[in-house]
Amino acid sequence: MTPKQGAEWMLNELQSKGALYQEDAVYGLHRQDKALTYTNESGNLAIHKDVLKVFNKIAPTANYVWSRSDRQWRKRGLNDKPGRAQY
User: 31-61: b or e for each residue (b if 16 or more CB lie within 10 Å)?
Assistant: First the structure.
């Protein structure tokens, strides 16, 4: 599976569920292809940067945000501030 395919899988999950927790994304990608994840400096499984780069290009900022406090991507709400990251 390519990083693009991994990013497309993430977007499909986000669109169908309305939200995608980071933990669900990383383990879902890892089950499909271990090359789409890596172990970070804290020893945790993480999404490969190439996957995230493509995901950020294909998931429209106008529709989806990253909720840092909840560690999830979700649909943009009426009270969200401009930009991708919400706190």
Answer: eebeebbeeeeeeeebbbeebbebbeeebee
Q: Give the CA-trace dihedral at 54, 43, 70, 32, to 10 degrees.
A: 50
The vertex-7 CA angle with 58 and 25, nearest 5°, equals: 125
pLDDT, tens digit (0-9, with 9 covering 90-100), for 60-87: 888 999 999 999 999 999 999 998 899 8
The predicted model scores a pTM of 0.91
- Sign of the CA dihedral 67, 58, 37, 24? positive
